[in-house]
Amino acid sequence: RYPIFLMSGSSYVVENATAEQQSAVDDLVKQFLLTDDNLANIIKEFRRRMEEGLAAEGKVLKMIPSYVTRRPDGTETGSYFAIDLGGTNLRVLKVTLDGKGGVKTEQQKFTLTEEAKARTLFDFIAQSVETFLDDRNLRPTGQQPPINMGFTFSYPVQQTSINSGIL
Questions:
Q1: Which terminus, N or C, of the chain has the lesser number of Cβ atoms within 10 Å?
Q2: Those residues with Cβ within 8 angstroms of residue 95's Cβ, 6 or more apart along the chain or in another chain
Q3: DSSP readout, 22-43?
Q4: How far is Cα 23 from Cα 18, in angstroms, rounded to an integer?
Q5: Residue 145: DSSP 8-state
Q6: What pLDDT shows up at residue 8?
Q7: Cβ atoms of 128 and 110 closer than 8 Å
Q8: 99, 76 in Cβ contact below 8 A?
Q9: Whole-angstrom Cα distance, residue 86 to residue 151?
Q10: What averages of pLDDT result for each successive group of 10 residues across the chain (167 residues)?
Q11: Contacts of 112 (CB under 8 A, 6+ apart)
Q12: Element (H, E) at 166
């Protein structure tokens, strides 16, 4: 039978514990308590490390700059396409925003082959996008503007602007 721990303020009371056992629990719990001052110091140090990591390469906390200048507010409208390339899968997505905070997502997942990983990655990506568009009758006819597409790349890249980077 396991002891029952009851929370009492910032300590735990162990049901039917001896004074020695309760003291041991109290000592253990104290190691995990975070005071407001300690939390403020952790936040301050974390921010310092982030700023240091953004300022130069080779720092303890590696950071990359974001070129996103604002966050969405829910009033955005339209359909947007995305590619999400991970280690084993590629997802192609169409996301439609209704301007009222609502989102409709269509997606298709493609498993990366060893051949694609080794030699034909961008051909594989192009074929996957083509399949996604054809399966949904979304292929541009030439009368429409080009499809804008975001690309999530789960590999190290040095991003140099909102739409470019160095592998």
A1: N
A2: 79, 80, 81, 82, 103, 104, 105
A3: HHHHHHHHHHH---HHHHHHHH
A4: 8
A5: P
A6: 65
A7: yes
A8: yes
A9: 11
A10: 66 84 87 89 96 91 84 92 92 96 96 88 93 92 82 79 79
A11: 87, 88, 89, 90, 121, 124
A12: strand 164-166
What is the three-class DSSP state of 126? Answer: helix
Of 100, 101, 96, nearest in space to 79 by CA: 96
Residue type, 150: G
Report the half-sphere exposure of 136 (CA within 13 A, side-chain side). 16
**Which tokens sit at 37?**
């001052």
pTM: 0.60
- Residues of 115-136 as b/e, b for ≥16 C-beta within 10 angstroms? ebeeeeeeebbeebbeebbeee
**Residue 73 in contact with residue 142, Cβ under 8 Å?**
no
* 3-class DSSP assignment, residue 96: strand
In the block, residue with structure tokens 């975070």: 34
Distance CA 148, CA 161 (A): 16
Distance in angstroms (rounded) separating the CA atoms of residues 97 and 104: 7
| Torsion angle in degrees (nearest 10) through CA of 156, 161, 163, 164 | -50
